[in-house]
Amino acid sequence: MEQAIAAIRKAGFQADQIKTAAASPGNGGVQAMGQYAGHDTDSPNPDAPRTWLSDGLPRLVLALLLAVGAEGLSFIAPSALPWDIAKMALAAVAIFLAGFGTYRKGLAALRAGRLNINALMTVAVTGAFLIGQWPEAAMVMALYAIAEAIEARAVDRARNAIRSLLALAPEEADVRQADGSWARTAAKAIAVGSIVRVRPGERFALDGVVSSGTGAVDQAAVTGESIPVDKAPGDEVFAGTINAASELQIRTTAPAGDTLLARIIQAVEQAQGSRAPTQRFVDRFAAIYTPAVFVLAVLVAALTPWLMDWTWLQAVYKALVILVIACPCALVISTPVTVVSGLAAAARRGVLIKGGVYLEEARKLKVVALDKTGTLTAGKPALVAFESVTASRSEAVLRGLALSLSARSDHPVSKAIAAGLLGAGGAEERSVEDFAALPGRGVHGTVGGELLTLANHRWVEEQGLCSTSLEDRLAAHEQQGRTVTLLASAHEVLALVAVADRIKPTSRQAVQELLVLGVTPVMLTGDNATTAQAIGRQAGIDEVRGPLLPDEKLNAIQELQSTRGMTAMTGDGINDAPALAKADIGFAMGGAGTHTAMEAADIVVMNDDLRRLPETIRLSKRAHAVLVQNITLALGIKAIFLVLAVFGNASMWMAVFADMGASLLVVFNGLRLLRPEVHRP
């Protein structure tokens, strides 16, 4: 570590080891985003929030005033030795105050044979000073340093968009002690399984499961949901979210360094290291562009006195102007600022993009494959219909009988029936004797002295209780993808109960938005064809494939890629992981999704809202448009001023404004992605 730090400092950069707080609730052991594109910080603590004072603004303002003074003397003072010495002294002090850091880094770069922006500025300002352009050399360095400070502050907005996540989780929480009392404890010291109390208005310090209390929780900061979510015992809560209503007690399920919030921050940090295709292109271009510009400046200085009848001082001055204009700062910084702004904008909406490459490539998607259960649908069966089949008993009585049997079973379908009947009200649960469950068939028991069954279609058919009219009613429900259970006595079927995994309210809108964007949705599901087709019709998806095993989903993705183009896969289960990994871009549902699916995916939708998919594609299109604008601005402005420098009358002042003006333009243009999307189709 010491050797690495020494090498960095030898190269002219400030190096400080950042302590990793692996258990910190706020950062989960991750570091704040560093500077971009070869820029560095001279701050003693590069991880501290940037201020104008830490950027040395008073020193830079003084340097600018001295440079203005030198410039003023050049206009009003006669050309005499005392005045020349005064102008040179003011300029030298201004250059020292504004350019010490630039010179240190520039000389280190020149020694290492690297022609970066600091090397170019060092050569240009030194050359201008040596040929007697003292006021202009001072003004160039002061303006450059101030513009660089403004640029760094602007870039910090993108960094702070991620850094703000660090402050979401509180550092302390109330923990129940062995004697029942409560003690304020540092979040990083709270063990998994502890009971933590969260008052109304407080943020959760850790992930956990509600053990006591009910209330609404604002999860917008983590999942992007705009409406508070109701929580009851057994429901999951996340660090950084806000307890909006009443006091809740939770049992912690993860240490401070491994909360969902910490993993989001860590993934965004890691994503910044994944360079987008445009960024890789710009880096390669700049590596060729910078030496080429240096060669051009040398040729202008050496040849124009012979070719264009310039004096040597004029030729050297023009060459120095070219060096300042051609600094590739704006070009190099244009892509990382845009990409990080896009990543931060997505994170604010509950979309975790694991790399700049996926942000940029999402705009090229032609097909989005969608799993059914847990992705298009809620993933949990719910009661959707209760129909009386006999007229011998009232519906209220039949509901009570169905509730009595279903409440005794732990089968998911029975649980859905019991929950639906209880939620609807009007059903009275009665005691059940001789209750028994028959796997693959249903349950039976004696209620009020009568033997009743709550059975599937096959068991009722085996008992000889089905009729043609009943079969027609069953077929109508089954065609809608519903699971039908029948309440029957020993002699007749009493009621029909239908359960279904209902489509999410937002799925149809998401599918419509994908179609508007020119992206074809395809359902890939392991469920039976009838159910899949029913859900497909509800969602507005024309192409439905099922039932598919995990390897068949993988083959389907490969086939779509070869015949349709770039294909995304969206899923939430372990069975979706192979397809998620194979797809050009994998979207995982983060709320209901398994850890395996989220690891395999490239993008995680934290609140399971499918509308985030078209939103991500639109963000990708916006980011690409901004990238193209930035590269065009950076190269276009420099091309214009390069022509003016060689054939016109571009001064070093104009060169500085061309270089740093372009840099500021691309930075602020890239930061536009942090603004919320205004238009939604």
Secondary structure: elements and pairs:
Elements: H1 2-10, H2 57-76, H3 81-111, H4 117-130, H5 134-166, E1 172-176, E2 182-186, E3 195-198, E4 208-212, E5 215-218, H6 220-223, E6 229-231, E7 236-237, E8 242-243, E9 248-252, H7 260-271, H8 277-307, H9 312-325, H10 329-348, E10 351-353, H11 356-361, E11 367-370, H12 372-376, E12 377-388, H13 395-406, H14 412-424, E13 433-438, E14 442-447, E15 450-456, H15 457-462, H16 468-478, E16 483-488, E17 493-503, H17 507-516, E18 520-524, H18 529-539, E19 543-545, H19 550-564, E20 567-571, H20 577-582, E21 585-589, H21 595-600, E22 603-605, H22 612-647, H23 652-671
Parallel strand pairs: 11-18, 11-20, 18-19, 20-21, 21-22
Antiparallel strand pairs: 1-2, 1-3, 3-9, 4-7, 4-9, 5-6, 5-8, 10-22, 12-17, 13-14, 14-15, 15-16, 16-17
Plain-language structure description:
The protein has 681 residues and is of the alpha+beta class. Among the domains are: 87 residues, Calcium-transporting ATPase, cytoplasmic transduction domain A, CATH 2.70.150; 125 residues, Calcium-transporting ATPase, cytoplasmic domain N (3-Layer(aba) Sandwich). The protein is built from 23 helices and 22 strands. The chain has a 7-stranded mixed beta sheet, with helices on both faces. Helix 3 runs antiparallel to helix 4, helix 4 packs antiparallel against helix 5 and helix 4 runs antiparallel to helix 9. The longest helix has 36 residues. About 5% of the residues have low confidence. It catalyses: Zn(2+)(in) + ATP + H2O = Zn(2+)(out) + ADP + phosphate + H(+). It is found in: Cell membrane; Membrane. InterPro entries: ATPase_P-typ_cyto_dom_N, ATPase_P-typ_P_site, ATPase_P-typ_TM_dom_sf, ATPase_P-typ_transduc_dom_A_sf, ATPase_P-type_domA, Cation_Transport_ATPase_IB, HAD-like_sf, HAD_sf.
